């Protein structure tokens, strides 16, 4: 690709816009503009425009002592994009929540250890126990419960539904009266 004459005004405008982003010093603006115009006079038009732009930006960085004249603008737009997109906000919130969850649950996440000992590793067992123990008894049609009565019935039901506990309970009652 080669540089066309129509590329020159664009390069000059780009140089001026870049240096204005870095500094308000009019003398530096003028110096950069003069150097860019001088460089375009010596430019090899068989080279592509990005090669000239690279040379131009390198010189702007040197004159302004700034490694990236677009850094402030890039940072501002990146922050804006992250703060104003649903995906960015949700992604950050979700990631933060996941990291917090896994950090808090790490001591419980020894699945191989627990499954080798036939211990439950999910909430399914607990949910099933609640359904059998509580819901089936307390949600019958027409049933009304006060806390004291429900607590007593729930205790008795838990004893009855847990293998070996019902007979152990009655042995203790018989033993201690």
Protein topology:
Elements: H1 7-22, H2 26-42, H3 49-64, H4 71-84, H5 86-105, H6 111-116, H7 124-138, H8 147-161, H9 165-176
Helix pairs in contact: 1-2, 1-3, 2-3, 4-5
Molecular structure report:
The chain has 177 residues and is mainly α. Helix content is 74%, strand content 0%. The protein is built from 9 helices and no strands. The protein has helices at 7-22, 26-42, 49-64, 71-84, 86-105, 111-116, 124-138, 147-161, 165-176. Helix 1 packs antiparallel against helix 2 (26-42), helix 1 packs parallel to helix 3 and helix 4 packs across helix 5 (86-105). The longest helix is centred in the middle third of the chain and has 20 residues, at 86-105.
Compact description:
The protein is mainly alpha-helical and 177 residues long. It has nine helices and no strands. 74% of the residues lie in helices and 0% in strands.
CA radius of gyration is 38 Å
Biggest β-sheet strands, sense, barrel: none
Return residue spans where pLDDT drops below 50 for at least 5 consecutive residues.
none
Kindly report how far apart the N and C termini lie.
101 Å
Mean pLDDT: 84
| Secondary-structure class | mainly alpha
How does the overall form come out from the CA principal axes? Answer: rod-shaped
> Helix count?
9
- One letter per element, helices H and strands E, the order comes to HHHHHHHHH
Count of individual beta strands: 0
Helix content: over 70%
Q: Which key features would you list for this structure?
A:
177 residues, 9 helices, 74% helix
